[in-house]
Structures are given as C-alpha cells and as structure tokens.
Amino acid sequence: MRPTSVSAARLDNFVAPNKSIICHANLQIVLETFSHAQPASKYSLSNGAETALTQLADVDAVVVTHLHSDHWDDEAAAILDKKLPLFAQNDEDAAHIRSQGFQDVRTLTENTEFQGIHLAKTGGQHGTDATLEAIPALGQVCGVVFSHPSNKRLYLAGDTIWNEHVAAAISRHHPEIIVLNAGKAVFPGFPPIIMGEEDVLAVHKAAPEATLIASHMEAVNHCVLSRAALRAYSEEQGFASSLLVPADGETLAFK
Predict the structure, then answer these.
(1) Is 212 contained in some domain?
(2) Residue 4 lies in a domain
(3) How much is the pTM?
(4) Which of 210, 202, 213, 154 is nearest to 180 (CA)?
(5) What is the mean predicted confidence (pLDDT) over 33-46?
(6) Which of helix, strand or coil describes residue 74?
(7) Cα–Cα–Cα angle for 28, 29, 32, nearest 5°?
(8) Strand 27-31 with 20-24, pairing
(9) Which residues contact 81 (CB under 8 A, 6 or more apart)?
(10) Is 254 part of any domain?
(11) Could you tell me if residue 130 is inside a domain?
(12) pLDDT higher for 50 or 73?
C-alpha cells in the first residue's frame, strides 16, 4: 500500500541498510537497488555483511546515482518492471540500463521533473583525487535534490566524500533533510571513498539546521564505520540531535 501524503518525506531502509525508498509528494522512489552479498575484492575488506532483495515495493520510479554493483546489479535489474521510469546520472549509464531491457530511462539534469517533483542532479566525488587516479573504476557519481512545494527539500548526497561539490549543493539548494552514505568505505591503502564520521560532521557544520540521515552502513563489505560508532561520535561532537541513524527496516517520517 502506498503511503499517504502525511509523510513529507519517508526514508525506509527497505531490505538492507543501503537500500532506501523515499516517499515524496506521495510518490515512492527507490534510491538504488542491489541484491547480492558482496565478497571481498583485491581492494576491499569483508565485514561479513550480506543483503537480500526479497521484494520491491509498489514504487513509481528508481534513481540510480551510478552503476557500481552495490547500487545496481543484474539480479535487481531482472526483478524490476522494465516499464518503470529510471533516472541515471549521465547518458552512458542510461544506455547501459537500456541495454538491460528498460524502456523508460531518463538522464538526470539540474532541472528534471517527474510528476510534480523537481529533481536536481548534484556533483560528488567517490574518493580523493589520488584515489580516483589510482582506481579509475570509481568513476563518476552524482547526488540528487528532491523538491516539492508541500514537502521538505531532501538532498541525497550519494557515494561521495565531503568536498566542494557537497558544499555547493548545500549552499545552492538549502536542503532540510540530507541523506549521507556514511559507512566510511575503504580500499586498503587508500583514504575512505565515501563519508565517514568527520565528513558527516562537516556536513552538519555546513547545514546546521538540517536533519542528517546516515545510510549505506553495515551492508557492504568495505564499509568499516558502524552505526553505533557514528552515533557515539555525534554525541561526542555535539550534533546527535541533528543526526538520525536508522535501524534496519525503520521508517522516518517528516512533516
């Protein structure tokens, strides 16, 4: 059953801690999908976490910020309705998704509209300059800001570290809710490739009035920051009241 409009924004760690559904303007939008356990690679450390895609809800669209297998995989693609609207970060990613049989694939821009919701693509960087040079497969990533007159403005930062792209998105869009992939994913020998606790604090300092939601935690093999550790850090640094760290399956509603 589709949620009613009493929830201005609904973030649901739907099956696993890195899979979320937003209900914005009474539309359900899945933020990435992936279904398989992630074994350790030559770059990554395994923390033993496994996820399972059991059933996708009655969603209206899917946003895919990039094509890494912890955001979009063949099994999840096989389950989704091929007529479902999908939004990709660029034409190259859109072409790949079309090759999997999807018929309505759209490229995100700074002025994308979907059934009354405004989606603004934002920049990001999946690691430091040195890391990206050493591991080109990290590639391009993006974030998205969701806006609707009746809802709070929500910014999904995506797979990025704190940098000028995130700062610019906050300065331009003034989001009231910010979803951060904050598992502190690492490749051995390199700095983290997504946000860790210090990045989350930097976002709070840039947007002190915003509610922060930590996602992408304890689900992928190379994410080393636990939810308990992030909560403890936020208490030590004095911003625990601005940070939500959902449990598996928890729904957050904002009015």
Answers:
(1) yes
(2) no
(3) 0.82
(4) 213
(5) 41
(6) helix
(7) 145
(8) antiparallel
(9) none
(10) no
(11) yes
(12) 73
pLDDT at 223: 80
How far apart are the C-alpha atoms of 119 and 151, rounded to whole Å? 13
Q: What is the full DSSP assignment across 107-142?
A: E--TTEEETTEEEEEE---SS-HHHHHH-GGG----
| Residue 248 DSSP symbol | T
DSSP-derived pairing of the beta strands 9-13 and 251-254: antiparallel
* Residue 45 domain boundaries: 9-246
Between helices 197-206 and 164-173, what is the axis angle to 10°? Answer: 30
Beta bridge partners of 62: 30, 86
Q: Are strands 177-181 and 154-156 parallel, antiparallel or unpaired?
A: parallel
One-letter amino acid for residue 246 of the chain: P
Q: How far apart are alpha carbons 116 and 105 in whole angstroms?
A: 18
Mean pLDDT of 157-186: 94
DSSP 68: -
Find the largest Cα–Cα distance for the chain: 49
Residues in the chain: 255
Tokens found for residue 105: 């694939």
Find the CATH number of the domain harbouring 136. 3.60.15.10
Query: How many domains in the chain?
Result: 1
